[in-house]
Structures are given as structure tokens and as C-alpha cells.
Amino acid sequence: MDSSQGSTLAGLVNNASIQRDESRLDRVPVYVKELIAGGCAGALAKTSVAPLERTRTGGFHTLGVYQSMNKLTKNEGFLGLYKGNGASVIRIVPYAALHFMTYERYKSWILDNYPMLGTGPSIDLLAGSAAGGTSVLCTYPLDLARTKLAYQVVDTKGCIKDGIKGVHSQAVGPVHNGIKGVLTSAYKEAGVRGLYRGVGPTLTGILPYAGLKFYTYEKLKMHVPEEHQKSILMRLSCGALAGLFGQTLTYPLDVVKRQMQVGSLQNAAAGGARYRNTFDGLRTIVRNQGWKQLFAGVSINYIRIVPSAAISFTTYDMMKVWLDVPPQQKSKSVSAG
């Protein structure tokens, strides 16, 4: 066999291998591809901003980002920057997978059944809101566990530092060793209701936030010049602005949610009663702590949300390209290529 025949045979083998791979990929349902893409996007985004998440929830809101990380590293070592990230990733993978997949399914359903609504970003607003609510209801107990673990900061003397007020105490609530411990404790305390403490403000916040985030992202992409439509930097920028805009409008609800989730820690430090519902929480915070408290920590949240939203949207877009997920509609927005 001469070299030309060998090259031809190698080419045929390679082509056959590629075709087999493509055939296997084609057999995977679209919704499964969307679940995979969404899960990967969520995990990468959450891990990328894990150190910033610790500075936001570790009682260091009076310090700068650099000083906060320095203090955390000194007290708990480098791995302290990622404390609670395992719980965050375990929660975010199913949450992001469901969020993106249900967003695509709701969007497809609306386009198929309500053509009078058109095909613009308004569909993304509706589909994003519905997807946000669905994913929250399915994964909320994991979010509760992640929040409690993130707020539970143990210093070198073994004292628990309250994540809201930064108060040291020897007896501020139980010390949880992991997700199972948090969920078991919450269930023993109040049953299923305990696993969903704070879900009210979460749902109230996620419906507009998720909808606005998807709406803004798609709307911004529609106004990108043709020569920049395939740029990763463009996707990162649109994703960052979308997350920033949505988070700004819904941040007060996030404050109430976190205080309701932390529960006993917040009450032990402030001596207050638990909030009955979202609006009671907003009213109580404004009355006792002032309206500025509703935006406490918003600056560090901006630093966290910008890269998180940017990485999440961009990774999802790229994963859809790699998994060959077909576009649902033709528009001026960025193509899947």
C-alpha cells in the first residue's frame, strides 16, 4: 500500500469516526443538551466567583475585596476562599440546568402557541420569569443549605461570626458540617416548611430578575453591529450588563431572603422576630435599620454578579454551539455559530 492509499484510508476512518460522533450527538434529545449546557454554565460561573461570594456573605462588607480575601486567607487558609463552594456547585448545577432548559422549553411553547406575541425579547421576559420560578421551586432546599453554610464563618478561636452583623458569639445557632446537616436541622425544626423558609422573597425576586436578565441579554445582542456578533467579548459584556440591571432592581428582595434563610443567626444578633413574609421583612428592615440596609453589600454584589452573569450566559451560548442545539427562531440576535 503506497502513501497516497494510506492517507486516503486514514481520511475515510477519521470521517467515519466524526460521523459516528455526530450521529450519537444527534440522538441526544435537545432538552438533555440544554440541561448539560446550563449545568456547565452554572458550575463554571459559580466557581469563578466563589471567593467573591465568601467576601459578600462572610461579614466583611465594611472591608474592601482585597482586604476581605486577605483576612479570610489568614484565618482559614486559601481553601477558606472556597468554603461552601461545594454546596453552591451542588445547588447551582441542577438549578442552572433547569433554569436554562425550562427557559428554552417555555420559550418554544410560547412561540408555538401564542404567535400573536411575536418573536422579540418580550418572549424572553415571559419565558425567563417562568423558568426562574420553576428552577427555584425545584432546588430551593439546596439554596437554603448553601446560604447557611456560607454565613457560618468559624474563626481561629472557634467562635461563630454572624454573616450579617459581624458579631462574635460562642452560641449563635448550631454549627453545620455539610448540606445534609443543614437540611436535617431545618426539617426537624419546622418540617417541609423549614426547608422552604425564605422561598417567598426568593420567588418574588426571581420572577422579575430572571425575566429581565434574559430580556436584557437578548435585547442587547440585537443591537450589536454585524462584525461583532460572534465575539465572545460581546457576549460577556451583554451578559454582565443583563445581570447587573436585573440584580439592581431586585436586590432588596435578596436581602430579605438571606435574612430569612439565616434565621436564628440573624435573630440572635439583632434580637428580632422572624419575618412573616416578604413585605413584612421589607417593612421591618426599613423601620428598624433604615432603607439603606436594603442595599447593604450591593457594591460587592455588583463585583460578583458581573462576572457571574457574563460567564454563565457566554458558557451557555458556547455549549449550545458545541452540542449543536438548533436555534428556536430567526432574529437579529447573535446566531448560534
TrEMBL record:
Q: How does it sit in the membrane?
A: Multi-pass membrane protein
Keyword Mitochondrion assigned to the entry: answer is no
Residue windows of the Solcar repeats: 29-109, 119-223, 230-322
Location(s), subcellular: Membrane
Which Gene3D superfamilies would you find in this protein's record? Mitochondrial carrier domain
Q: Which PROSITE patterns match?
A: SOLCAR
- Is the Ion transport keyword given for this protein? no
Main localization is membrane
Q: Which UniProt keywords apply?
A: Membrane, Repeat, Transmembrane, Transport
Q: Which SUPFAM superfamilies match?
A: Mitochondrial carrier
Question: Which Gene Ontology cellular-component terms appear in the entry?
Answer: membrane
Give the GO biological process terms: transmembrane transport
Give the family, as the similarity comment puts it. Belongs to the mitochondrial carrier (TC 2.A.29) family.
- The protein's name is Graves disease carrier protein
| Native source organism of the sequence | Trifolium subterraneum (Subterranean clover)
Q: What is the lineage of its organism?
A: Eukaryota, Viridiplantae, Streptophyta, Embryophyta, Tracheophyta
